[in-house]
Design brief:
- The complex is a heterodimer of chains A (614) and B (340).
- Chain A is globular.
- In chain A, 37% of the residues lie in helices and 19% in strands.
- In chain A, helix 14 links the parallel strand 14 and strand 15.
- Chain A has 614 residues and is α/β, with parallel strands linked by helices.
- In chain A, the strands form five sheets. Chain A has a seven-stranded mixed β-sheet with strand order 11-10-12-13-15-14-21, with helices on both faces.
- Chain A contains 20 helices and 23 strands.
- Chain A folds into three domains: 218 residues, Pyruvate-ferredoxin Oxidoreductase, domain 3 (3-Layer(aba) Sandwich); 180 residues, Thiamin diphosphate (ThDP)-binding fold, Pyr/PP domains (Rossmann fold); 109 residues, Rossmann fold (3-Layer(aba) Sandwich), CATH 3.40.50.920.
- By secondary structure, chain B is α/β, with parallel strands linked by helices.
- Chain B has a domain of 211 residues: Rossmann fold (3-Layer(aba) Sandwich).
- In chain B, the strands form three sheets. In chain B, strands 2-1-3-4-8-7-13-9 form an eight-stranded mixed β-sheet, with helices on both faces. In chain B, strands 10-11-12 form a three-stranded antiparallel β-sheet. In chain B, strands 5-6 form a two-stranded antiparallel ribbon.
- In chain B, strand 11 and strand 12 form a beta hairpin.
- Chain B is globular, with a radius of gyration of 22 Å.
- The chains are: A alpha/beta (614), B alpha/beta (340).
- Chains A and B meet through helix 1, strand 9, helix 9, helix 11 and helix 12 of A and strand 1, strand 2, helix 2, helix 4 and helix 10 of B.
């Protein structure tokens, strides 16, 4: 029985359930299947801070949203077209976001009196008229799973755990996703637990087939492949991209990597990934605390390898004294701040851009570091490489402001030809003739990098002020003034080594939107829609935050209005106003989630209207 | 396979080869001078190429030492020389890595790192200059100050029981623990050579007199005329005897240590033989102090265990045997699809 097929150009699907329901895994697999179809997509995993919150509670809801399209899309979508709710709590939390007329698939078996009460429902939404504006499909997912696995020898609890794959089967049918990639994943994942593998495969197929036999949906959908730039693609999230970027940088520079980190959400993931890449020579050390993590990396850089550490906001705060030691001793150190919602413990599993001013200025004394920020999951790969290039060339720490959202979000990544990635030239000083620890390269102002153990170049460095060139401890007043200025100048030299900002959008735009970090996709989506509506909008996105690209001032001054959307109270806004004396306007939302494109667009419309009426 | 980090080399250095051109700025008469001398003498004896040494210090009077030695040196931040030294050692296990630290730097702010480096058994050599005071900041009491010490931040006397570096090191799993005094320059020099030889974390607790802020605090048992009767130099495999005339010994009676008279012609049968591999013995010994007992000196513990960095690289080798370190394979490690 072939159901009628409807062709859509984009869809946003959201899976939501208890944190023990296996939402993330099916979200990921739906993403993989979508990648195989060839759609462009972006994902937004959203999980609670607790490990296993009490079943059925609203704070225990874990969700996975994916927007996929037949064209180039930039965000995981504001509002789902389809919500798959595994229990009343998942429905309660996500109902406000579902598009009017959207599809809601529920596991009706979980809509018990107890669960409804836990979720805060006074009456059953499946029975009253609160869902009349949606297309609700009640599916007895639990019963169907048990039925499909009735002959399986695994325990009742294990059978229940296969509900998620049954639901995935249903949604895969709905959007004509191929089951092969999902089946291959299950075969690999459970290769040592064949009975669990079988059960999940059965559940997946059962869900898929049920859609035909039970006529759950009147129609199924097709989202044709997107016309992406020709090339080879794979699915990647920011965590993997960060790790792969570091390994690639290590390969291109022939420098071993020592990554030392302390577990902290969400940085732990990168530590774990690198610890599984020992076969690439990566040394990863889980330290006893945050300070040990950065200081081990400093020792490593001092000795002549790539010292790297990663953390989140609270951890970066602990690392500041040591970071200043690296700035003072002019060592190539890489520090990742995978930003999360603050202040203090804040919202550990949510995203934010709150550490910009901290990264730029949060150190005692006039201490400057190079600051970079990736703008997409795949950009995390390129930013890792850029960080290594700059740190080793200028002999100075590089701080990368990444974000939780980037680490967990996935998208198709156009695979680079590794041979096309230029080598990172490293020159260790070996000649003792004329060597002084604080002599400087003419162009970069970098001091020499000496591998400890090189004969004839024995010297001492440290946190005390040193005299220019010779590097002995110096309390001379003029020397300190000179050294403070030259350390700052060195970081400014990077200006000539980084690209100018690019402006995208309407060539006759009078309003510019400036962003940094993960908001790239959301800003781009808003600009595109706005331009289609008839506004004339342009955007530029910053990847280098210190120093800021040399043409940025000129670019800003070309526009009558500059809007700066950020997931913070206006930090880049502050910097741009102070540095360029431009009267910028901020758009600031700090919800722990990425921007709602609709909201951003509405703000841009208001600003644009104001512009036009003046 | 021993690296430069524990070999005794054959280069004929003189101690002055390790003397830098920087004017030493310690107070005249400070016992840090004696330690510096012992260190330079030891480095000369060790005889491995000079460039193989890395001397890492924290913050404090002791921590100025790297500037006075002609090796690679790094004067870091307060309390953190140990993890920095760990980073150096893991980056290049062939180096002989030294940590120069003080009682505040190592036991107070750096205490956490001390515990963990010993657990890991990183092959570095930690020299703790213990003067029971914060000298550089001009005279506050430190975690090793005796209870009741009166000084700038304890005008009515310290109310804290002191931390015990040797006991702490042993409890943390240190594989080489020794103690001496800065005034025993030759003994210290020998211990430093032993520390270099030991493959694993070596910890030397050095009593060092600060005559400006805490003068004479060890004299009672380190002063030349009394020290033989008030210290016991432990030696593996030898009976635990001490005294200027070797006329006293230590034995265990009813689970407690007891000082007894020792007559070599008629030795008490239960005089203990020191065993540097016996942790219980070491832990018990570490709690003995003058005047109740002779203060233990010498090598208190020495055992051989795998080192942190060796195990790191062993795992990397094992991983390389199992999987190809192919960058292309890594990047292309997921389902790849082509857009034409």
């Amino acid at each position: 029985m072939q159901k009628p097929e409807e062709i859509l150009d984009k869809v946003t699907v959201k899976f939501a359930g208890d944190s023990g329901d296996g939402i993330q895994i099916i979200g990921d697999q739906f993403g993989n299947a979508t990648a195989v179809v060839g759609n462009d997509f972006a994902t937004l995993p959203d999980f609670p801070a607790e490990i296993r919150a009490p079943q059925g509670t609203t704070f225990g809801v874990s969700s996975y949203q994916i927007q996929f399209a037949a064209f180039d899309i930039h965000t995981p979508g504001d509002n789902p077209d389809v919500l798959v709710a595994f229990n009343p709590a998942a429905l309660k939390v996500n109902l406000p976001y579902v598009k009017a007329g959207g599809i809601i698939v529920v596991n009706e078996d979980e809509f018990t009196e107890q669960n409804l009460k836990k979720a805060g429902f006074n009456s059953n939404p499946l029975e009253d008229d609160s869902l009349t504006s949606f297309r609700v499909h009640r599916v007895p997912i639990t019963k169907l799973t048990i039925e499909a696995l009735k002959d399986d020898s695994i325990g009742h609890r294990e059978k229940l755990r296969c509900k998620n794959f049954l639901a995935l089967g249903i949604i895969s049918w709905l959007f004509s996703r191929p089951l092969d990639p999902i089946e291959n994943f299950l075969k690999k994942r459970f290769s040592t637990k064949l009975d669990i593998m079988d059960a999940n495969l059965k559940a997946l197929k059962a869900g898929f087939n049920i859609c035909d036999t039970m006529e759950i949906f009147p129609v199924h959908y097709q989202v044709p492949p997107a016309r992406l730039e020709p090339g080879k693609y794979r699915n990647i999230n920011g965590a993997l991209a960060t790790a792969y970027g570091l390994i690639t940088a290590s390969n291109r520079s022939s420098l071993p990597i020592i990554y030392s980190g302390y577990p902290i959400t969400p940085a732990s993931e990168v530590l774990q990934l690198l610890s599984a890449l020992k076969h690439h020579g990566a040394v990863s050390i889980q330290t006893e605390d945050e300070i040990s993590a950065i200081t081990m990396a400093i020792g490593a850089s001092y000795a002549g390898v790539l010292g790297v550490t990663g953390t989140s906001g609270p951890g970066l705060a602990l690392k500041i004294e040591a970071l200043n030691l690296a700035v003072m001793t002019e060592l190539p150190l890489i520090v990742f701040d995978f930003q999360r919602s603050g202040i203090s413990t804040g919202l550990p599993t949510k995203t934010e851009q709150g550490d910009l001013l901290f990264a730029l200025f949060g150190r005692p004394s006039d201490s400057h570091v190079i600051v970079l920020a990736p703008s997409s999951p795949s950009d995390c790969f390129w930013t890792s490489i850029e960080a290594v290039r700059l740190a080793t060339k200028y002999m100075t720490p590089v701080l990368i402001l990444s974000e939780q959202f980037l680490l967990h979000s996935s998208e198709p990544w156009r695979l680079p030809n590794l041979d096309d990635i230029p080598p990172i030239e490293i020159t260790f000083r070996t000649d003792p003739e004329g060597f002084y620890p604080y002599m400087r390269d003419e162009k970069t102002l970098a001091r020499p990098w000496v591998k400890v153990g090189t004969p004839g170049l024995e010297h001492r460095i440290g946190g005390l002020e040193k005299d220019n060139i010779y590097g002995n401890v110096s309390y001379d007043p003029e020397n300190h003034d000179f050294m403070t200025k030259i350390r700052a100048q060195k970081v400014q030299k990077v200006l000539y080594d980084i690209p100018d900002v690019e402006v995208l959008g309407h060539p006759e735009a009078e309003m510019l939107v400036v962003g940094w970090g993960s908001t790239y996709g959301h800003i781009k989506a808003a600009i595109e829609i706005g331009n289609r509506e008839g506004m004339k909008l342009a955007m530029t996105h910053l990847r280098h935050l210190n120093p800021l690209p040399k043409n940025l001032g000129d670019v800003l001054r070309r526009y009558k209005k500059v809007v700066v959307p950020e997931l913070n109270l206006g930090q880049l806004n502050y910097v741009l106003r102070a540095k360029y004396l431009v009267d910028t306007t901020g758009f600031n939302r700090i919800t722990g989630k990425p921007f709602d494109v609709g909201e951003l667009l509405e703000f841009l419309r208001e600003q644009y209207k104001q512009l036009k009426t003046h | 396979m021993s690296t430069q980090a524990e070999q005794i080399g054959d280069i004929k250095y003189k101690p002055t080869d390790f003397k830098s051109d920087q004017e030493v700025r310690w107070c005249p008469g400070c016992e840090d001078y004696a330690i510096l001398k012992a260190f330079q003498t030891a480095l000369a004896e060790i005889g491995i190429p000079k460039e193989k040494h890395a001397v890492i210090s924290g913050i404090g009077c002791a921590a100025r030492l790297p500037y006075y030695v002609t090796t690679y040196g790094f004067h870091t931040i307060h309390g953190r020389p140990i993890p920095i030294a760990t980073g150096v050692k893991v980056a290049n296990p062939d180096l002989s890595v030294w940590v120069i630290t003080g009682d505040g730097d190592c036991i107070s702010i750096g205490g956490n790192h001390l515990i963990h480096v010993m657990r890991r058994n990183v092959d570095i050599n930690i020299l703790l200059f213990d003067n029971k005071v914060y000298g550089l900041t001009k005279g506050q009491y430190s975690p090793t100050s005796d209870k009741g010490t009166i000084n700038k931040s304890a005008p009515m006397g310290s109310i804290e029981e002191p931390a015990e570096p040797v006991a702490l090191a042993l409890a943390s799993g240190a594989t080489f623990v020794a103690r001496t005094s800065a005034s025993y320059v030759q003994h210290l020099s020998n211990l430093i050579i032993e520390a270099h030889r030991h493959k694993g974390t070596s910890f030397i607790h050095i009593y060092q007199n600060c005559y400006v802020y805490n003068d004479g605090v060890f004299d009672e048992f380190t002063e030349k005329s009394v020290r033989d009767d008030r210290n016991i130099i432990l030696e593996h495999g030898k009976p635990m005897i001490f005294g200027k005339n070797s006329d006293k010994g230590l034995r265990l009676k009813n689970s407690r240590f007891e000082v007894v008279e020792y007559n070599p012609n008629n030795p008490p049968e239960d005089i203990m033989i020191y065993d540097e591999t016996n942790l219980s013995l070491a832990l018990s010994i570490s709690k003995l102090y003058w005047p109740d007992y002779p203060t233990p000196m010498g090598v208190i513990r020495r055992v051989k265990q795998p080192t942190f960095e060796n195990q790191i690289y062993e795992q990397i080798s094992k991983a390389k045997e199992k999987f190809q370190p192919d960058l292309n394979r890594l990047i292309y490690s997921s389902d790849v699809w082509e857009v034409k």
